[in-house]
Amino acid sequence: MVDHSFTDLTLAALYDALNPWGPGDDFYLGLVREARSVLDIGCGTGRLLRRARTEGHRGRLMGLDPAPAMLVQARQAQPDGVEWVLGDTRVRRWDGEFDLVVMTGHAFQELVEDEEIRSCLRGVSAALADGGRFVFETRNPAARAWERWTPERVYEITDADGTPVRVWHEVQQPLTGGRVRFTETYASTPWPTPRVCRSILRFLGPEALTAFLAEAGLTVVAQYGDWGRSPLSHAGPEIITVARRA
User: Fold this and answer.
1) In what order do the strands lie in the sheet with 179-187?
2) Could you read off the pLDDT of 37-71 as tens digits, one per residue?
3) pTM above 0.90, yes or no
4) Are residues 183 and 206 in contact, defined by beta-carbon separation less than 8 angstroms?
5) CATH class of domain segment(s) 2-140+203-245
6) Ranges assigned E (strand) in 67-178
7) Cα separation of 177 and 2, whole Å?
8) Which residues, 6+ apart, have CB-to-CB distance to 81 below 8 Å?
9) Residues with Cβ < 8 Å from 76, sequence gap 6 or more?
10) Which of 167, 169, 170, 166 shows the shortest CA–CA distance to 189?
11) From the centroid of its chain, how far is CA 218?
């Protein structure tokens, strides 16, 4: 097996098919519509900002992602006036430029080490204008989502040419120190070998999230357990957090 990630153009092109638009996207799109300026950290293929611009958003929209192949996808369908930036929050000095900062698609969980989280949140705090909001979601560790990431659960999608691609996940190391190691395997009959991505995700509960945010000068103003804005529950699937600068 060969290590791959979303630096792989082929896999990046499959991302939206594997992760179709859903209630979470609608939730964030509603927030973007209401904001004059938006920074999307870990924007991936950029579909949230592209859709907002296509629907008529006239303010500043910036997508930030460390994966070059993802930004290739974003730029291929780029509406006028969306800024795509390669890197993370360390790539520039921020100065209160955005009314809204978001991290969608559980991107926050890819911050594995404490210092990665602190660095990102310092950047978020610096990027937020007075009264601005930071909104992101993480999987609730109490719901133990990784227990359903098994090779028996195979997803079939199609690439741009209509060729079927099979995708499955397998946990290599269950929850240890708040982290889960797993693989995501892509296989297609025309390919000589499967493509395998190896990943680590960090699972944090609401108290730990609140503590990291407070350290960066951010105050939690709301947390929800699902995209319908239900209160947090012990085994609810999500921890959706809305924070402001303290």
Assistant:
1) 2-4, 195-202, 179-187, 164-176, 155-158
2) 999 999 999 999 999 999 999 999 999 999 999 99
3) yes
4) no
5) alpha beta
6) 82-86, 98-103, 128-139, 155-158, 164-176
7) 27
8) 53, 61
9) none
10) 166
11) 19
